[in-house]
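Before a colleague's protein record goes any further, I have to sign it off. What it holds is a sequence and that sequence's fold in C-alpha cell form. Would you go through it and say whether the fold makes sense for this chain? The record follows directly below this note.
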Amino acid sequence: MATAKKTIPVILLCLACMPAWAQGGKNAPSNNGPQVFDAPRVTTAGAEAAAQPVDPKSYLIGPEDVLRIEVFRDNEMSRAVSVRPDGKITLPLIGDIQAEGLTPERLGAQLKEALGQFEKTPEVTVSVLSVNSKSFMVTGRVNKVGRWPLVTPIRVFEAIGLAGGFQEFANDKDITIIRGNDRLSFNYKDFLKGKQKAVEQNILLQNGDTIHVK
C-alpha cells in the first residue's frame, strides 16, 4: 500500500509533462524535406566587412559597388560608401566626387589630393567591399542556378564549377553563353578532352553574360 502511494505522485508528474513533450515534438523541424540550395547572390551594401579580392590597379569601379574609404588616423573620414547610380560618392569636407570608371588606386589618389586642402599629407586607401556593378548568371540544368559577382577574370569552365556542376541529363556538349544579341557555344566534354576548339570556346566572361545549360 505504501509503495502504491509513492508511485501515484510519479505517475501524475509524468502525465503533467506529456503536453509539453507532445508540443515539442510537433514543432521539431523535419529533416525529411528536399535539400534547398540558396542561389548565390551579389553582396549588398554593407553586407561584407572584408574587401573583395579585386586588383586595385585594374578593377574599374561601377554604380552600386560598395567601397571602403580608409583615411589613416581619421575615423570621421574613414567609412563605407555606396557608389550612386550617377557614379559618384559623397564624403565629408570633399562633397561629391566621381568614382565610376576609376580604379580603387586612382580614386584613392584623387581623394588624397582633395583632402590635402584640409589635412597635412593625408594617407588614403580605397578597397572594394562589394562588387555589385559587374556580374554573370548561370541558368538551366546546373545544381546552383544564380548570379555571381564578377570580381576577378573567370572563364566558362570555372563558372560552371561555381554553379556546382551539372544536373542529371544536362547537355554538356552544347552550352550557350548569351552575350547581348550574340549566342556563343561551349563544349564542356570536349574541353575536358583537351580539344582545341573547345579550349578556344572557354572564353573570359563579361559583365552581364549568362551561361545556359540545356
Remarks:
- Residues 2-27 form the longest helix (26 residues).
- Confidence is low (pLDDT under 50) at residues 10-48.
- The chain has five helices and ten strands.
- The two ends are 78 Å apart (CA to CA).
